[in-house]
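Late entry, written up from scratch paper. The run itself happened at the end of the previous shift, but nothing got recorded in the book at the time, so transcribing now.
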Amino acid sequence: MKAILKILIVILLIGCNTNKNSFTINANTDRVGDAILLKIDPVENNIDTTSIKNGKFSFKKTIEEEELYRLKFHDGSSFDILVDKGENIIIDYQEDQLSITGSSGTNKIMDIDNNLLNLLMFRDSITKELQGLANSVDYEEKVAMYREAFFDKLAMHQEYLKEFIKNNKESKVCLIALFQEYGQSSPVMTVDEHLEVFDMVLENLKTNFPNSNHITLLEEQIEIFRPLAYGQPAPDFTLPNQNNQSISLSDFKNKVVLIDFWASWCKPCRMENPKLVKLYEKYSNNDFEIISVSLDGTARQQDSKSAWLKAIKDDNLSAWIHLSELKGWETYVRELYNFNSIPYTVLVDKEGKIVAKNLRGVDLELRIKKLIDG
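Output as recorded:
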């Protein structure tokens, strides 16, 4: 009898060891059709599909390490999960209500999603309030005030994510935190502004998941943006002004400098020029300078210099610095600052470091004001 008992124990242990390398999902839902389990991976196109029968579906997969997946349905709804070996995950997904148990990583995703939801609700509330103030005399001032309030909330959420990443270094949940968005093409954090956080996540991946395909993709993104990331020295350049005198960015140390890339033939640029005039009038006496670099000189222009000078005069821009090689897109500073469209701006602080890129209107003025006010 004891021998039989020992054999049963061995069999059970072998079975448990096998299960430790897999995870299971058992779900109830009001969705119909198929449930699609997509591995979130920049290289592998790993998709599993199962039919939803009587409101139920299940998956079982073997994995080598913690992995990110996205569950998708034919009505367009989806959500992300983070699974680990040995997890038995129970999902209940009815209408807009989602409940997940048995997956600690997924619970962490839901936590950061809920924090993001608070930011989105705040954004939507102030947007609604602004719509009601559209006919107000001080509408522009209200817009500036509300946008500043939103960016303060955004900064708080960014700090929350930074702390979250520090506390979850050994998990791929950091990738979800790193790439959150508060709108279409509006990431909460960017390599430009949060280089140190991206570096931290990269090093954590290398340490804890050395075979992950996310490493290569993240490395490529970081190396592309690192030279022009916020906090990095703005690349110096020397270009001729209207009188063919050489002027360098480094000539304006201890000033807040807005580098404005534009051209006389660029209609959106010309539409932005009146705003730059107001900015310069307001802040030029407070260690603020504008350097406008023109991309005039394209093959279609017969007299590019005349067009450039005329635009400066017509738009009342003569109060600040104007530079151009008159080589159009072939000017060397385009590659130096890695931009592909204009208008394009780079804001540099008094230490010569990049602090913002491609801001316009109220957002640009808010950042300039903060730099000048210290």
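The chain is about 40% helix and 25% strand.
(Scratch paper discarded after transcription.)
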